Amino acid sequence: MCRFLVYKGRDEILLSKLILDPAHSILTQSYDSRLRLDTRRPHNGDGFGVGYYTHPSLGPEPCIFTSTIPAWNCINLERIASKTTSSLIFAHVRATTEGALSDSNCHPFRHKSLMWMHNGNLGAWKHIKRRLVDSLRDQWFIGVQGSTDSEWAFALFLDTLESAGYDPNSEPEDGFGQTALREAMIGTIRRINAFISEVHQANSSEKELDTRSLLNFAVTDGHTVVCTRYVSSRTDEAASLFFSSGTNWKEHDPRGNYKMERRDKGADVVLVANNWVTVPTNSVLTIHKQTVDVRPLIDEYYNAVPSYSRHSDFAVSKGLVSSTPGTTADAATDSLKTAAAAVMV
Q: For residues 92 and 148, what is the distance between their CA atoms, to the nearest angstrom?
């Protein structure tokens, strides 16, 4: 499985202070992830990508840099990150589950002002792919450049957004709004579940067909960020997802440990990643105007009982662990705890 990081701040940050310099940065996690327990594939070395928004005078589309070179071995990443600033950043390191090793399969994916990442898998992918593809309008079918289930999920999101009455090509000045992006995200997950349900019924005799999905998605229009932590199971735990918010993300000591400072109740920075405050299983996290909103994604897989226990075996088998107390999550993420608003997986 992959790892991803989202940063949204009131002010711009140097990319290197987020993805390179911290002792447990996403670059370090690409080869030394304490949350990655898949001993068969212990590294996230199948390419990486960084996407960020520039000054409005350069247009609303994000700049995206991807490479199939492992992140820890790419000198160009160091050169670019040490001289580039942005207030909204997506970063992703890849461990291939679907799709070949190529630039076109590296996250984040982009369409106009929209940017997308995924950590996880679409259940029964080879069985549902035809149904998913056939449901798309021509524009979104044609726009897919790679072969990953993640990019096809993005195409499904664009199709869902259009069905809700929003033109993904329009690039509105203030974005599509948090409600539009959140509802399109929820609609995308529901459509994926519907395809899987159809396949499950048609192949009920196949006992080996695994229909469980791990859907940690992240999407932004340059203004609002929407992330999900989701598993299509009532008994399994989802892949880990955490966030932290505060007023400043800065180096805490000479060892490269970064820390999120909070000088008041505001959140100048929000980070989403694999650390810090746990996003509840089967929830949607929205960052809009530096305000973090977390709400449940209620469907047949949701359980409202706080003490309800899920099994982490499925997430572990995919190279991920949950936020279960006693895991090594804290050790892996301490150095990332200083940004104003961040989301990490």
A: 14
* Predicted TM-score of the model (pTM): 0.86
In contact, 26 and 7? CB cutoff 8 Å: no
* Residue 2 designated active-site: yes
How many other C-beta atoms are found inside a 10 Å radius of the C-beta of residue 175?
18
Per-residue pLDDT at 335 exceeds 60: no
Q: Which two tokens stand for residue 280?
A: 């509840």
List phi, psi (to 5°) of 104.
-70, -15
The torsion region of residue 276 among left (phi > 0), alpha (psi -120 to 50) and beta comes to left
Mean pLDDT of 339-343: 45
> Residues 7, 324: contact at Cβ < 8 Å?
no
Q: Select which of 2, 74, 106, 227 is catalytic.
A: 2
Q: Characterize the bridge pairing of strands 48-52 and 109-111.
A: unpaired
* Residue 132, amino acid: L
Which stretches of 59-167 are assigned E, i.e. beta strand? 63-67, 85-93, 109-111, 114-121
